[in-house]
Amino acid sequence: MKLWGGRFTKEVNQLVFNFNASISFDQKFYHQDIEGSIAHVTMLAKQGILTGAERDTIIEGLKGILADIESGALVIDSACEDIHSFVETHLIKRIGEPGKKLHTGRSRNDQVALDMKLYTRDEIVEVKALVKSLLTQLHTMMQEHLDTYMPGFTHLQKAQPITLAHHLGAYFEMFKRDYSRLCDIYARMNYCPLGSGALAGTTYPLDREYTAELLGFAGATLNSMDSVADRDYLIEFLSAMSTIMMHLSRFCEEIILWNSNEYRFVELDDAYSTGSSIMPQKKNPDIAELVRGKTGRVYGALISLLTTMKGLPLAYNKDMQEDKELTFDAIDTVKGCLSLFTGMISTMRFRPEIMAASAKNGFTNATDAADYLVNHGVAFRDAHGIIGQLVLLCIEKNCSLDDLSLAEYKEICPAFEEDIYEAISMKTCVEKRNTIGAPGRDAMKKVIEANAEYLKTLA
Ligand code: ARG
């Protein structure tokens, strides 16, 4: 059944119907649509717009439809234009006259605004739970790798030694911000648009605050035109999800490098790797690559919606129907990537000896060697030059700073003493760095403790 045949003299062209229809995708929120309708009729009866008996019949009908969709007894087909018409049509079919009163004081514009908000709210909760699992996994790994030394990089060149706990801790902070962004978005969007009508409210004495309360919103939205025209919260959500994907993608890129033959810092579990159809030796990091690759489609959803919204006059325009498929796809993508990524990192095996050897080979202690000279009265700029000369010597001799003899040190600068070896050992280089946020064991332990407290506060 169509909801709007009255003023038309011709049947709509089939291609037009198909082009216009949204039921193939908006059926995804049938549950939310029915939940919203139940709240709406409950409010209508409280306000004396429907009788208590009408309310009860409608709610019973709606609950029956919900149960039948869920059991598979009622199949959502494409005869109706959208999920809103589907539910209303079947309600009228089931309960007759009272069903025709469901849409009193409501438009599909505020209805779809509500349904999409209810759906998004539920999904934000799910994405938050997945980010929380990832944070918990990272936290466990950080505790295990306080003493796993590795090179820290800038420009993908070995820079200074750090620990794996410290490196993982950087991602912990990123996902922590992602989590808090999701909380902010939820709080900002949590206002109910229902009762805004097509755009200008209604003449019925609706109690919008009551409907909002029934549906768990913080309150009712305050401008009926904005209520039906606002998709900011989806843009924010897509932006937060794009940022999550950006973080996952950077992490995946590192795991792909670390898993390569050249690095061998990590070995992915067989269950999270794939083989080659031609090269028998291959074990490929496809999951990490796919997560990195799927980042593009989530960014794409964000840019699409920003572009769809940019020229729209107030209030509702059909363009806004385009918000759904891409948001649904982005949500499914992000949820899938988060859970697979967490599984992948919880099963991969690190190789601490190789990581430590790599940190040792790349002159990552050169800054500490320069600091040693500064502590022995040499100006930093001069110390920088002296260590540069020593690095050159090491490159010629194909050795590390730790391998030079004291005589070789003294030949370039007499300020060096026997304690230089201790001063530039990997352990010293890492352990001396104990300012807040640095990789030293004491500093890291404090951060790990604070993060344990933080994790306890998450819903
Ligand atoms: N399918 C529509 C959407 O997703 C529902 C709202 C339709 N409103 C209208 N005035 N045609 O936006």
Characterise the protein shown here:
- This protein is mainly alpha-helical.
- The chain has three domains: 14-104, Fumarase/aspartase (N-terminal domain) (Fumarase C, Chain B, domain 1, Orthogonal Bundle), CATH 1.10.275; 109-140 and 154-357, Up-down Bundle (Fumarase C, Chain A, domain 2); 361-457, Ribonucleotide Reductase Protein R1, domain 1 (Orthogonal Bundle), CATH 1.10.40.
- Helix content is 62%, strand content 5%.
- The chain contains 19 helices and six strands.
- The chain has helices at 14-20, 23-26, 30-46, 52-71, 83-95, 108-144, 164-189, 208-214, 224-229, 232-258, 286-309, 323-347, 352-361, 366-375, 380-397, 406-412, 420-423, 426-431, 441-457, and strands at residues 149-154, 157-163, 191-192, 219-220, 266-267, 349-350.
- The strands form three sheets. Strands 1-2 form a two-stranded antiparallel sheet.
- Strand 3, helix 8 (208-214) and strand 4 (219-220) form a beta-alpha-beta unit.
- The two termini are 43 Å apart.
- The mean pLDDT is 96.
- The site of arginine has 10 residues, from helix 6.
- Arginine binds next to helix 6.
